[in-house]
Amino acid sequence: MFDIDWRGLIVPFSYVLVLGGTFMTFSTIYRKRKAVESANLEPWFGTHLQRNVYLSLLHLEPENESEKAPKVPDSIIRAALLRRAVEDINRIIQIRTAKAACSSLLQRGSVGDDLWQRFQRAEKEMEEELRDVVMEANALAPNWGQTIFQSANEIAANTALRERLDEIQAQTDTEKEWWEKRRASIKDEFLKELEDADKTQTKTGSEDEPVLVDTDTPSATPSGASKKKKPKK
Amino acid sequence: MSAEYAYDEEGHLWPFFVFVLTFIVTVPLTYLLINRSRDPSASLKRVQTTFKHDHVPLVDSLRKKEKRKDRKLWLMAFVIAGWAVMGQMVYLIKTTEAPTAKLWNPYDILGISESATEKVIKSTYKKMSLKFHPDKVKIDPTKNETLEDLNNRYVEISKAYQALTDEEVRNNYIQFGNPDGKQGYSINIALPKIIVSDGNGKYVVLIYSVLFGVLLPYLVGSWWYGTLRRSKEGVLMESSNRLFRAYKDNIDEGGVVAALSTGKEYEELFKGDKADSDLAKIESRILAEGETSPFAAGLSVKDKAKLEDLESGPQRKALALLWAYLGRIELDDPALEKAKFEVAPIAHALNKSFNAIALAYMNTAPLLASYYTSQLLIQALPPKASPLLQLPYVTPAVVKAVEGDSRVHTTVQGFMDKPDAKRRSLAVGAGLLTDAQYREAVNVAKQLPYFRVTKAFFKVTGERFIIPSSLVTLVVKGRFVPPGSEKVPEVNELDLEDIDPAEDDLDAILGRNTKKQVGKDENGKPIMVAADSEPILPPLAAAPYLARDHSPRWHVFLTDSKQGRVAVPPFTFVQFDQPIFEEDGKTPTFAMQTLKAQFQAPPQAGHYTFVMHVVCDSYVGFDTKMEVTLIVEEASKAAAMADEEEISEAEEDSIAGIMHAAKGGAPPASKPVKRKDKEDSDEEESGTDEEEDDTSETNTDTEDES
Fold it and tell me: Which candidate in B70, B215, B380, B661 could, as Cys together with B545 as Cys, close a disulfide (CB 3.0–4.6 Å)?
């Protein structure tokens, strides 16, 4: 049949082997690195404190094994779940508003790919979280799952409003102080003007008689000023 | 008929090849190098001032360092090498003698002139054949001849004779330049013979594989990862990501400053030990009680809380230094002072990225906060500081004397609009400005390019109405009126019109050269004069504290005030069509500038009221905010109006005119025209209401002054 020159075939086969091997190692190393990178991505949100509180309340362990686990009142567990839902609402609002901006920035190359990955992971996590909260709510009270997020939304909106109000209220003291100072300085100015006018009036009255006609007009201003000042007192 | 490919053995071709190759590469690189090393800011005008603060040498040295960083040594080396190679090649071309392929010329061989008659040819041939016949000629050993040479010579002579006398041979000679007919030709490859000669093969393969196997992947890889590392705005991608996380819908200038301090650039600036050193000192300085503000650096209580919440590290140090920079706090330490002036340009670069992020969210407040932060960073002012601090020598004490207890800050233009005597009495005094300092401050104020909007309106090029989804142009007309300018000329009404270029004027439509309207002829048609289309750049921002040269930019955008959202994203203007200052760089020209921005009209008809913002990124308090109304007409209505218009305009001898007459139409009615006028004036009024007041006010002010 054929006389195969095995020795001659070593070269092409080794070429193919080396080429394939290089590609294989490159791709495995590259993939591993990518996986490690994406696994080490910082989470989008910080720790979910409210969820942790709720879960630890739910699975309260006894301090020593002989004792029975302390019974947590239902109302507290419900309140904890509601708090958790409020925090979820805040997070979901953040994600919803950021989504369009993030994707358009990614397309333009203004933010990096890893940010988008983190964002998507956070989105998925939030979906799971919402489902979990609904299930927990239904377990605590029948059909609560349908309304829990409505109340949570209202609580979140109210808190935001309150914060804003507090911020404004916090400024009242400094504003008051400033206004007192300002009022005092305006008063001083007017008083001074009044005095000056009196002085000039007496001066001009005593020294220069022909100008007497003119002194009436400038005196109108201080009197007007003193009138203005009165209602402020 | 053989074609022969040969490598360049004599070395007279490959120098050409190498020369052309290096020429193609080196010349563009040389252009790049020259262009880059020429300081772009040197050609720009500056605001003329004699003001020098204590740290001018430091700021200048930082500016120079940045410019030096731009210069690339490898590029210079490469260009020099390229020119050296080219010189060498030119030398080789000059010295190497190219083999002259001699043309076969029978006359030369016979040694006769080309005008020789047949008789002469014959006689010469006979003589020569007698003389050179191989049988007759003896081999001359001194000339180193062989029998073959003699034979050849004789053959040549007889060939030449035949070429001149024999019909067939002569034809061959005329067609192919040779009496024997078509000759084989040779093609030389312009590569030196060395590279194919034995023994060199492996080196050639080595160079080849290094070039394509190592260098090319390296270059492509470094380019690709370089683009991945930096965002479009030129900051590190990681910084950009962090800025995105730091974005908040209700962020203010202080918040933006805090967000900018998250930049990864600062981690590289304050590596290791530098991150914590002297942090306590900086913080005690910036948080000391200030003259006019709770803290010396002008930060609010909220900003202070933000600073103190941070873990100590590069970010906290960067933020503290940023506040020190903005508050113009003395740190009494050369290293700290240097760091203080270094953080600001980085923050300014990061702010560009933040600006892009704010724009992606399309909310007005963060976008404005970002622009205001840019102003603050350039002028080294804390948020809510008086714009007067932009002027040289002005200190918080001077500001206090000028503003009194008022909560509203006096702007530079407001201050300068006061009569000189009043300004002087307010600002000059013990502990305030000296007379010379006051004059310098006024001098600088009179050079600041304050863009005063005169009129803003919408239009669609070539149309009378704005129909849904059409491409609308926002035309902003305004003048650069530096604060405190005296004798500001009246606005020329002609300047306020924006005339569409004629339909056949391709140059103007494509923006190739702009024409300037100088007046109207008796028919009301504009008289145009070709204007020099050289773009005019404003003088560099007067920013004595910023360690960069910055050319001011103006951003024009429309917002929806009810929803607090950006309706039309910003258009940025860096250059203008009219000169801003006279040649001396100080006297304003008050020329009318035109800014145009195009966007798509809303898809529904109606009246849209927008707030137009004109924001300068370099000066505080130079922004304009005014309401403009965009009237979008129903497409059908506009079309109907336009139709009427067209017919009414149709001349009698035109087809439309005849058609109109045939339909029994009356001569052009004036009704539609009137209606149109009304629309136009409506639209203009809404745009200019506010501004008309503004100009009249300032006019009276200047009159007072004189």
Answer: B380
Interface probe, candidates A33, A105, A183, chain B, greatest B C-beta count within 10 A: A105
Q: How many angstroms separate the CA atoms of B19 and B90, rounded? A: 7
Residue B409 maps to a domain = yes
The residue type of A123 is E
Give, in order, the Cα–Cα distances in Å from B627 to each of A148, B593, B621.
Answer: 43, 20, 18
Chain A nearest C-alpha distance from B403 (Å): 12
Cα gap A221→B449, rounded to integer Å? 40
User: By the CB < 8 Å criterion, does B407 face chain A?
Assistant: yes
pLDDT (0 to 100) of residue B698? 38
B101 located within any domain:
no
Classify each residue of B515-526 as buried b or exposed e, where b means 16 or more C-beta atoms within 10 Å of its C-beta: bbbeeeeeeeee
pLDDT digits (tens, 9 = 90+) for B514-557: 455 545 454 555 555 455 556 778 888 888 888 888 888 999 99
- By the 10 Å C-beta count (0-12 exposed, 13-18 middle, 19+ buried), A40 is classed as exposed
ipTM of the complex: 0.72
Residue B526 structural domain: 451-633+670-705
Kindly state the tokens that stand for B511. Answer: 């923006």
Answer yes or no: do B119 and B33 share one domain. Answer: no
A→B contacts (Cβ < 8 Å), by residue, are 44, 97-98, 100-102, 104-105, 108-115, 178, 181-182, 185
Same-domain pairing of B526 and B591: yes
Q: Do both B242 and B369 map to the same domain?
A: yes
Is residue B289 domain-shared with residue B143, that is, in the same domain? no
Q: Between A and B, how many residue pairs show a Cβ–Cβ distance under 8 A?
A: 54
Domain count, chain B: 6
CA B626, CA B609: separation in Å to the nearest integer? 10
Pick from A24-33, A170-179, B175-184: least confident = B175-184
CA dist B658 and B653 (Å) reads: 7
Alpha helices in A109-171 (DSSP H): 113-140, 148-170
B382-410 exposure pattern, b = at least 16 Cβ within 10 A, e = fewer: bbebbbbbbbbbbebebbebbbeeeeebb
Which among B539, B618, B621, B622 has a CA at the least distance from the CA of B375?
B618
| Contact between residue B403 and residue B397 where contact means Cβ atoms under 8 Å apart | no
**B642 belongs to a structural domain:** no
The whole-angstrom distance between A115's CA and the closest CA on chain B is 6
Chain B residue numbers touching A181 (CB-CB < 8 A): 405
Domain ranges in chain A are 45-170, 181-232
SS3 label, residue B370: helix
Tell me if B404 and A185 make a contact (CB, 8 A cut-off).
yes
Burial of B623 (0-12, 13-18, 19+ CB in 10 A): buried
Cβ–Cβ gap A110/B228 under 8 Å: no
- Contact: B241, A115; criterion CB under 8 Å: yes
Contacts of A185 in chain B (CB under 8 A): 404-405
- Residue B693, pLDDT score: 41
CB contact under 8 A, A110 and B357: yes
The CA angle B243-B249-B251, to the nearest 5 degrees, is 70
B-chain residues near A108 (CB < 8 A):
232, 356
Helix boundaries (H) for B362-453: 364-379, 396-403, 412-417, 420-427, 435-445
Residues of A within 8 A of B244 (CB-CB) are 98, 101-102, 105, 111, 115
Residue numbers of chain B with a pLDDT score lower than 50:
1-2, 514, 518, 520, 522, 529, 648-652, 665-706
pTM score, whole prediction: 0.73
Tell me which residue has tokens 């913080």.
B283
Which of B95, B124, B144 is the last residue before a domain boundary? B95
| Secondary-structure breakdown of chain B: helix, strand, coil percentages, each rounded to the nearest 5 | 50, 15, 35
Domain boundary among B43, B71, B95: B95
**Chain A residue nearest residue B248, CA to CA:** A94
